[in-house]
Each structure stands twice: as structure tokens, then as C-alpha cells.
């Protein structure tokens, strides 16, 4: 997705606002039996916390591109990856068989890259085109389609098939950062109004 018209200044609210509130995040991935899915610094940031209204503007552009209303989005999840840090393969949608019934489901994800990464840190889709889809897949591997982070670029992908089930090819993760630092803002979009977004 092209964020034409925003320019480099849009990065500042994402990094300056949450920097003091960054904390170590560890997520357990039930489906993959990977105990530590991610160990990175992160926090949440809503458009209401940004006095410049840059985040609100970006949310508007995302809504226009996806045709998903702005109020269906969760707060931005701001993540910082340092050298060696990664995010094991996972789904953004929640499988009811593992997480229980869902009142609302994540249908799409928008990743906004806030920095360049000198080496590593690619967003990867191991099951793209149906490859690597076997029971022996190692969720820690960095394989498949890989997208290199570049400041100002956006990556949009959908998590559900038209019948409402999880699209297996939406499995994704982040390769380890080898050199430099990776900053990314993730916006999860749901199928219903997200009342707790602000």
C-alpha cells in the first residue's frame, strides 16, 4: 500500500509517543506449541493519543484502501525488534477450536513499517502458494515469501476466507533482525465495530 501524501514525518508519532511505555512482550502460541512466540518491545497506541492527528489520517487511508470502516480497527500495536529478536509464525485471527467462540474476528492486518532494517527482519509467509504445508513444519523457521521492511511501506493481508474460516496461507511471522533495528505498527481490522479501540 502506498502512503503517498504522508511523507517521512508520519513515523514520529508512532515512535515518540510510545517509547517511554515500551515493555517486553511474550506471547504463547497455542496452535504451534511454541512457548515464546515473540520476545520484543511493544505497546499499543490509539489515534486519540496523537495530538497531530497523523494516526487518524493513516487510519482513514487504511479504511479507504480496505473498505473496512475505521471504527473496526484495533489500536495500533507498536513493536520494536532489536538484533536477534523475531516473531514465530502465527495467525492473527483466532481459531474458535483453540481460543473458544469469538464475538468478533480479525479479518485483515495492516503492517506499517516505521524503519528500514539493514539486514533481516523480513515479514515472512511460509505457506504462500501452498508450500511448506505439512505437519512437520517448524514454526521458528524463516522461509517462504519474505517482505523486506522499508520505512513508509505498508503491507496488507487478509486472514479469513470468504466462508469465514482462517486462510491457512495467512500464517506469517518476522525473521530475526541481523543488523539494525526494526519498528513496525500493526493495525488489526475486525468484522464488527471495535468499541474498545480508543
Automatic annotation (TrEMBL):
Where in the cell is the protein located? Endoplasmic reticulum membrane
Topology relative to the lipid bilayer, per the entry, is: Single-pass type II membrane protein
Needed cofactors, names only, are: L-ascorbate
PROSITE patterns in the cross-refs: FE2OG_OXY
> What UniProt keywords are attached to this protein's entry?
Dioxygenase, Iron, Metal-binding, Oxidoreductase, Signal-anchor, Transmembrane
Q: Which InterPro entries match?
A: Oxoglu/Fe-dep_dioxygenase_dom (IPR005123), P4HA-like (IPR045054), Pro_4_hyd_alph (IPR006620), Pro_4_hyd_alph_FE2OG_OXY (IPR044862)
Q: What is this protein called?
A: Fe2OG dioxygenase domain-containing protein
Species this protein is from: Dendrobium chrysotoxum
